[in-house]
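Suppose you are handed only these lines of text.
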Amino acid sequence: MIVYFDNAEERARDFTSAIGYDIAPTKFAPNDWYLYLDESDLTLRHPAKQSMRLSLDEIRRRSLSGRRSPLSRACGVREGTTVLDAFAGWGTDGLTLATLGCVVTCCELQPLVFAMLYDRIERFELCSLDCTRIDVRELLADRTRRWDVVYLDPMFPAHPKTALPSYPMQVLADLAEQSDAREIAEWSIERADQRVVVKNRIKAPPVIRAPDWQIRARSVRFDIYRADRN
Ligand SMILES: C[S@@+](CC[C@H](N)C(=O)[O-])C[C@H]1O[C@@H](n2cnc3c(N)ncnc32)[C@H](O)[C@@H]1O
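From them, the structure of the protein bound to S-adenosylmethionine can be written out as follows.
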């Protein structure tokens, strides 16, 4: 995976050495989405589409609603709650949970998305959060790893009747890996000490069996499963 630059070669070198990517001048950039770093920002660029940068404002705004928010209540947030954010994406949910006191492991498979996530986490400067580029099935297969909460926000299938999502979410829909959320949810129930939370569209059927309980927000629903501790 490559990060492209015009003038910020040294900064690009520092950034990529931290995540194991290479660098190259922008004149070699592909005819598709690519990572671009200048002196101030990491952006996702595309020759025919608007560039995208992740801001920190949404996380700050969300963390203001504190532990009363549906996400926080769904995850049963307390100081020090350990959370695996299995489908981390841009990290908005994972970062929000970390600002509320959780110790979060963000897991993201898609390499462009991972680089943007890594950069966003670095900019937020929260030590209670780390991120790893891995297929979450590998993490869940390691029986020595456990979390209080496993949080799953899989990509929702396209829906003709819902409003166009925000631009970052449209880009994510372009790039995201697709995995069998059902299988991952079943494995998660064996790895969580307290609960598994699955985010879903408000009216969509549950990803697996009926949940133990639900928390509804304006356009999404959190299905909550008690952990299987046997
Ligand atoms: C809907 S997005 C998550 C959005 C996220 N909650 C946020 O706040 O930005 C789902 C993400 O899961 C990632 N993903 C899909 N399958 C995965 C897997 N097996 N392991 C790790 N990440 C995966 C996709 O690449 C995508 O970025």
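What can we learn from it? The first helix runs from residue 9 to 19. The two ends are 41 Å apart (CA to CA).
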